[in-house]
Amino acid sequence: MNFVKAMDNLPFILKLILALPGLDIVWGIYRLVKGVAKKNLFLTIVGILWIIPGAVICWVVDLITVIINDRPTVFVD
Question: For residue 48, what are the domain limits?
Fold first, then answer.
């Protein structure tokens, strides 16, 4: 859970940079780790799926949600 807390405490500009294409894989890993830590199967699957297509398609969702909510969409808290 330390990785999740560290990612949550990043400065806004760094979160924004990590939401750019190619770097968005980090947010997929974030979802995966958070899902495993919370024992949430749905979030774990979303994290796994977000790693591959996240770098190509899903980065737009992360970019918008980081701008609006100051964190990427995790779908489940």
Answer: 2-8+22-69
